[in-house]
Amino acid sequence: MTKRVVLIGHPVAHSLSGAMQQAAFDAQGIDATYELWDRAPIQLVDSIGELRGDDFLGANVTIPHKERVVPLVDRLTEEAHATGAVNTITKEGKRLVGHNTDVPGFKVALDKLVGRQKMPRQAVLLGAGGGARAVVYGLITEGFQRIIVFNRHLHRAEGMVRHFSRTAAHMELRAMPWHESIIEAELAKAKVLVNATSIGLTRDESPIPADVIPPEMLVLDLIYSKTRLLRDAAASGATTMDGELMLLHQGAAAFTLWTGQPAPLELMQEKLAEARAAGVRSAEGEPTGEPVA
Ligand code: NDP
User: Fold this and answer.
1) Whether the CB of 63 sits within 6 Å of ligand 1
2) Over its length of 293 residues, how does the chain's per-residue pLDDT go in tens digits?
3) Is residue 120 lining ligand 1, measured as CB closer than 6 Å?
4) Do the beta carbons of residue 83 and residue 98 sit within 8 Å?
5) Pairwise CA distance, residues 123 & 113, whole Å
6) Is 93 strand, coil or helix?
7) Which of 123, 175, 179, 183 places its Cα 20 to 30 Å from the Cα of 229?
8) Mutation test residue for ligand 1: of 110, 198, 276, 280, the one with most atoms within 8 Å of CB
9) Closest by alpha carbon to 198, among 99, 71, 62, 104?
């Protein structure tokens, strides 16, 4: 029987995951299809219930469902529990297990960005959505001692900080109001800057002015293109990385969870590059807008 893996999101039309996962199944001789399910929140409970059928290997979950899925699965891994977000579902018989492979994906990207330097201890994070949660947990488990979170809606950042209060009890995790002067002051004290907002995804704009980025900064943008933030940071002398490696490795981790096999990383990277060259820039299906110049 051909097995099925589905990506559940709303929308999912522009999925980069589809391109890389189907190619990986085919290359490894796994008789499985990767389907895109555009499901509104009201359809989510039924869609998750369907996965209990024998033909399903599992699923990916994306915007806007990553947090809503948490109470709908039977078991959560440590990462899913800690972040309060699920991006991958596997099966144990008819039982559903929720994972968060954005966390290992982020850690691979961070390690590569840091390179041979000592892992820094202070970070500034822009954003407080699902992606930001994976970043916070990844930074905490990498041993960061101070993480300052800025978000357009401060209450959401405060909620995220509260969510991690136990995990972060030994270190400083704080939400601060989005004011340029405060961001500048915090950047001066930090070594790593992560953008987990979607600013720069659909328009060529940066969340922060170019002149507040210190030259020795390590800057990671979760968006998979050379965003204005990354271009500004590189111009000021900073070391930069976009979100492609994180996307690739969250996908590779999911592939291994579904199939028990190592993921064909090179092929998946090739497929991602092809999809990007064809103009797809969003992770799973967020509106892509006009191409960034
Ligand atoms: P969410 O919708 O959960 O969060 C979006 C975030 O962006 C929030 O912090 C939101 O702030 C902020 N934001 C959106 N629009 C604006 C705006 N106009 N001005 C200021 N802030 C804004 O999305 P995700 O966390 O899932 O994704 C965020 C980004 O990260 C996306 O670009 C996504 O593609 C990328 N991503 C990449 C991954 C990868 O593997 N590389 C994995 C996951 C995400 P507020 O709360 O105030 O609305």
Assistant:
1) yes
2) 999 999 999 988 777 899 899 999 999 999 999 999 999 999 999 999 999 999 999 999 998 999 999 999 999 999 999 999 999 999 999 999 999 999 999 999 999 999 999 999 999 999 999 999 999 999 999 999 999 999 999 999 999 999 999 999 999 999 999 999 999 999 999 999 999 999 998 899 999 999 999 999 999 999 988 999 999 999 999 999 999 999 999 999 999 999 999 999 999 999 999 988 887 655 554 444 443 33
3) no
4) no
5) 13
6) coil
7) 175
8) 198
9) 62
Atom of ligand 1 nearest to the CA of 157: 46
Q: Using a cut of 0.90, tell me whether the model's pTM lies above it.
A: yes
Task: Please list, in sequence order, all residues whose beta carbon lies within 8 angstroms of the beta carbon of residue 100, skipping any fewer than 6 positions away.
Answer: 77, 79, 80, 82, 83, 85, 86, 87, 88, 134, 137
Do the Cβ atoms of 99 and 77 come closer than 8 Å? Answer: yes
Separation between Cα atoms, residue 148 and residue 152, nearest integer Å: 14
Element (H, E) at 160: helix 154-163
